[in-house]
Prior knowledge:
six-stranded parallel sheet, 2 domains, about 15% strand, 12 helices, alpha/beta, Rossmann fold, about 325 residues, 12 strands
Amino acid sequence: MKKRKVMIISPALAAANNGNWQTAWRWSRMLRPDFDTQIASKWDGEEADVLIALHARRSAASVEQWAQANGSRGLALVLTGTDLYRDIQSDALAQRSLQVAGRLVVLQELGPMALPAAMRGKTSVVFQSAPRRVTLPKTTRHFRALMVGHLRDEKDPLTYVRAARRLADRPEFYFDHIGEALDTDLGRSCSAAGAQLRHYRWLGGLAHSVTRARIQRAHVLVHASKMEGGAHVILEAVQSGTPVLASRIDGNVGMLGRDYAGYFALGDDAGLATLLRRCHDDGDFLPHLRQQCQARAQLFEPARERGLLLQLAHSLCAGRGE
């Protein structure tokens, strides 16, 4: 029997090595062997039973073309952080994508609250996943923080840099920073910080396997973003036994839970520095964060994500809206 075909539209392909691409690549593998899957940057009308499009604005042309040919049947739209917390409030293309999609998918549990109430009924929450890794022993020679994310305004890398400056008098703290300079000015700022601060290193872009290993070895992952749809790096840290310090925004709270103790206010480098000091100086705080992260780990299991994706794809094939 011929397999049904699922087209996954990702504005970013492998060369970008960003969250959209990681999601598309992982989902294409998870939907096999049940479906024939293909990833593309746009849909040009080729035969498919299901279209899963990432990003309401950037994939709007593909979404509209599918809707013109097929209506909402077989069409799912996956909403990113810039979709949920910026574009759908003001961008006509993003708003149109929401309207015509048969199903909406968000990647963390507060995502539906950012949508118009009338659209929440066709919305599913699918947490992304990563395999669990052994929690590695952490060095006692120093305390290593790590931030992972390409340098762009939405990731707010300068809050991390400012926190490093605040802790320049604490030689036990080391700050590593992984990510390509998508914003030239931010790249210059991080380069300058690396030259001025002995304990801060901007490492540029690294392979995913290398980045994941560095997450395992870090004492804490810092995620300072201004907006997130559901950061993959957070769940990778959780699945590696590495606690997270995160900006208190819906995209992060929807991943780590409302009662998580490791939040700082958006842009608050002083608050981040205080949390880092507490992680080092308070012997009970870091284990508490680790315990809270582990309580969320079941949400980020690959088998759970695959099961939800298969339900979605089969439902789309059958033309059901629930």
